[in-house]
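Running co-folding for guanosine-5'-diphosphate.
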Amino acid sequence: MKLYEFEGKNLFAEEGIPTPHGFVAYSPEEVEKNAAAIGKPVVVKSQILQGGRGKAGGIKFADTSGEAKELSKALFGMKLRDYTVDKVLVEEKLDIAKEYYLSVTIDAEKGRPLIMASVAGGVDIEEVAKETPEKIVMETVDIFKGLLPYQARRISYKMGLTGKEALETAEVMLKAYSLFRKYDADLVEINPLVVTGEGSIVAADAKVNIYDNALYRQPKFIKTRDHYDSEIEYEASQVGLGYIKLDGYIGLCCAGAGLTMMTLDLVDHYGGKASNFLEFGGAQYRNAYNALDLVLRDPEVKVVLVNVFGLIARADVIAQGLAEAIKALQPKVPIVVSLRGTGEAEGHKTLKEELGLIAFWSAEEAVKEAIRLGGGK
Ligand code: GDP
Ligand code: MN
């Protein structure tokens, strides 16, 4: 679960990481009110679940509350990267002297938390990694000991910091690590961590992701509509399905995540384009109805490809669910099915008798047929 910048900054503030004084606003009028309450030059920042807002024009600076209101009119409703802006964060404008980078994430290979820090902050860390990798300090953390103060200070010194700045940066690192562990985050990123003209350290940005599989034990975080990239992904989640929108024309309904990945590869291999990732199946074969319903909503879909390899969740049971779903939904586009697994002969028979649908016995053949029917190569 990705958190918005303002949500991340609220966590920072609770943890004692310095953040700029600010408020969220949902309209230009609110921007004006908040800017007036701050009473200083402000920065108005689009709140979307993606970075790179600065470069894309999603961040504005204003000297007065009136100017903040006017500038924010361009932000509300703006298409910014993959989102439409509906809220902004109004904050006192920092007097930035230096921009550092700091993050806590997971080193998957070592299976340990990883601290990354750099004096080359403010820009994409991927760029720094490419251009000047020597400027990035990386240290993994022993999960049982946690990040110890001496290690945090060592990272500061390796970054090239000295004196009070080194100690305060180490302090932010310790708090960021503590937050990372407390909330089962898989990312806590501060880019930039700013040194102001007066020499204070402030987190000017916040990117916090909570590990989805830990949400059950993190009641503080509730995934609302706002935390999904689109309406359809949100609706899928409400019926227990994982749906990810892609930009092709073949609607995919596959039983199992691994089979879905394989089917995506096959579609790509034969020159087609899938319109989505969607996994259904398991014990609730009736999800075929919800799955098909979601896939058919995308107007780009010219054909639906169902790929089932049902073992414990039997193929014949899934076929029955599929037949009911197709009868109920009456799709206007062709449906191509590949069905294998336990009770496969019975499943094929069901589809044929109930729908007149001849299913394939091979995923490859089904994929090729779907591409043909969808008008692809
Ligand atoms: P991102 O582009 O989505 O990562 O958004 P950031 O919050 O990191 O802002 C991008 C850039 O805008 C920062 O690196 C700063 O250079 C600039 N910026 C953001 N907030 C302030 C501020 O309060 N004062 C000044 N002077 N610059 C800011
Ligand atoms: Mn940033």
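Result summary
The first strand starts at residue 22 and ends at 25.
The domain at 21-92 is CATH 3.30.1490.20 (Dna Ligase; domain 1).
Job closed.
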